[in-house]
From TrEMBL:
Pfam families: TPR_14. Residues 45-75, 265-285 are annotated as: Disordered. Signal peptide: none annotated. It comes from Frigoriglobus tundricola. Keywords: TPR repeat. Residues 276-285 have a biased composition (Polar residues). SMART domains: TPR. PROSITE patterns: PROKAR_LIPOPROTEIN (PS51257), TPR (PS50005). InterPro entries: TPR-like_helical_dom_sf, TPR_rpt. Coiled coil: none annotated. Residues 50-59 have a biased composition (Low complexity). TPR repeats lie at residues 125-158. This is Flp pilus assembly protein TadD, contains TPR repeat.
Amino acid sequence: MDGRTFRRWCALGGLMAAALGCNRNATQQTPFGPMPDPGGVQMVNMPVNGSGSSRSLWGGSRGPTTPVELADNSKRPASAESLVAVADVRLEAALDEKTPGNKEALLDLARTGYQKALAQDPKSKAALTGMARYYARLGDRDRALEVYKKYLTLYPSDAGVAHEVALAHARWKDWPGAVAWCEFALKIDPENRAVKKTLGFCEAFAGRWDDAFAALCQIMPEAQARHNLAGLLDHMGHADASRVQLQLALKADPNFVPAQGFLAELDQPNDPNGIRQASDTQPAP
């Protein structure tokens, strides 16, 4: 990849690597007020509420159990955590392009695994987040938000899961929704640096440049914040605005090498293939 593409990847990687409907009849809200409703889903008034043969990930019988298999016919039923662990493996396999066979069958097995775990323990953190991630990764926003909402009703102080919902909205390219969930997560944990970084990136993609800059400046020096904004602007096709941010970054810190290198790239002509020549300068972490 060329230098500019590499910078875009580094700027976005931390946000995306990450790397995911509701009951309207409830009567109690979270301690932090109504949940955000960025995606058109009602988010207020949330409910409180040995050895042996095994089956492979595909559901067929085979030899001794392995760490990623469930002993369905053991004397003791598998725990919710074990059911979730197997469902997680099946989900990953179904979404892996290299996995042969019937991926729809694997998805069904993963879903039923999460559902069995929830039937066994409706308050299981692993089962609730597993089920939510299952729906989120399949693009079923309503069901994903419903399960995430149920989790945060039971565990309202978990800023990490609230951040996860923000990242799910980012993957859906629902930037206002991602911003709303970041703000909700920061109500739980106001000093969470990872959430602040995600907030800054999402605000940038939502076109809220001043807010994005303010959020990033809370966790990094001005020059680095402007360099990151420049990468996002360039990624979105705003080369002139990107150049301005790099110039401001160098005004704040004339010795900030990543901005120097990036600006030099922007000022270089494209090669015959339409790719701007890359310098050896590495992007800011």
